[in-house]
Amino acid sequence: MKALIAMSGGVDSSVAAKLTKEAGFECIGCTMELFDIGCGGGPRGETTSDEAQSADSDNVRDARSVAERLGMSFYAFDLKEAFRSCVIDKFTDAYSHGVTPNPCVDCNKNLKFGALLQKAEELGCEYIVTGHYARIERDPHTGKYLLRKAVNDAKDQSYVLYNLTQEQLAHVLMPLGEYSKDQVRELAKENGFVNADRPESQDICFVPDGDYASVIKQYTNRTFPEGDYVDLDGNVIGTHRGIIHYTIGQHKHLGQAFGEKRYVCRIDADKNQVVLGRNEDVFSSYAKATDFNWISGEIPEGEIRCRVRVRYKQKEQWATVRPIKANENAGSKGTDAVEIFFDEPQRAITPGQSAVLYDGDIVLGGGVLV
Questions:
Q1: Distance from the CA of 157 to the CA of which of 109, 173, 215, 270 falls in 20 to 30 A?
Q2: 310 and 296 in contact (C-beta within 8 Å)?
Q3: What is the pLDDT tens value at each position of the chain, 370 positions in all?
């Protein structure tokens, strides 16, 4: 069987390629070229930072080096337009409306498991392979595919994979689900991979310095005006720098002293206001998530008890989840939304981030918090 290996240039996808080849697959390596010299410089992406351009070039070079070392053919796919429309445009639009997006979720949904699966089919590959730390198994009783957390909980990436469908899971392999990061690096060193000691990136790929606001301004060619800080009663208590600089739960970099520690409780884009309160004011026992995907393809008939994660590195929390099927034509594709009632109040439930449901280490599904 043939497999298309999604190679980012990093150590994880390189070792995933090696493991797949050792498993007897005919492997083809590929890298997705996702941005012109970085992300932005205007909606067309004509100019961007030299740092991002260098990172993108290094990724392709390192991925090609590993592919050659493993005796694999290699492609670099130009997916810049799709990345711009599905990820960067959505990212900048969300921040412009006071929402904190998760671009990795959008990239996985539309690029890695969307456009790349199509490329695999065109090349006659039965599978695509990624370096994600998660596991895919098939339930022997139901025949359904299951998405499970990685064995190494510290590296688990299941949170950003909740949009996978049964059809996609049937054609995806994730060989690193049973490994630790140390084991992966050791395998890379043993095989002489050029990226064996490459440090992990902590930033979004098109924001290499972590300065989201500057990238949004550059990409949209817009300015975001100052506005009012208000308290929970609507009283003006200060001036903020522009709503793209803030997210729910934030208390640092507010730019002024208030006599006591204040936290961002809400962002009102229509009024250009940032609402501040105390730490206890950013806790809530209720959440709602839309654009919901049930990985099994089947919507529960009623309320379910499960654990829920509303941030990438958060420990799952017990909750009662109520599916809402407002659109009767939704069929088996998913629910319009779910309501989540947590056993204990959760801090900083943030619109734009994801709520992901777990039954033990099995991912039930997820959606976007509103």
A1: 215
A2: no
A3: 999 999 999 999 999 999 999 999 999 999 999 986 444 444 433 334 444 444 557 889 999 999 999 999 999 999 999 999 999 999 999 999 999 999 999 999 999 999 999 999 999 999 999 999 999 999 999 999 999 999 999 999 999 999 999 999 999 999 999 999 999 999 999 999 989 888 877 678 888 788 999 999 999 999 999 999 999 999 999 999 999 999 999 999 999 889 899 999 999 999 999 999 999 999 999 999 999 999 999 999 999 999 999 999 899 999 999 999 765 544 444 458 999 999 999 999 999 999 999 999 999 999 999 9
Q: How far apart are CA 172 and CA 168, in angstroms?
A: 6
Shortest CA distance to 317 belongs to which of 357, 366, 369? 357
Q: Helix or strand or coil: residue 290?
A: strand
Q: Is 205 a known active-site residue? A: yes
Tell me, yes or no, whether 71 and 115 share the same domain.
Answer: yes
Do the domain assignments include residue 90? yes
Q: Which two tokens stand for residue 139?
A: 């339930």
Question: Which of helix, strand or coil describes residue 175?
Answer: helix
* Helical ranges in the chain per DSSP H: 11-22, 50-69, 80-83, 89-96, 103-107, 116-122, 166-169, 181-190, 212-220
Q: Residues 107, 125, 265, 306: which is the catalytic one?
A: 107
Residue of 104, 205, 265, 306 marked catalytic? 205
Check whether residue 178 and residue 312 sit in a common domain.
no
Token pair belonging to 115: 């456009």
- Inter-CA distances, 225 with 99, 244, 256, 273, Å: 16, 10, 17, 11
Domain count, the chain: 3
Please tell me the total number of residues recorded for the chain in this structure.
Answer: 370
Say whether 104 is catalytic: no
User: Scanning the structure block, which residue is given the tokens 């595919």?
Assistant: 145
Residues 309 and 245 in one domain: no
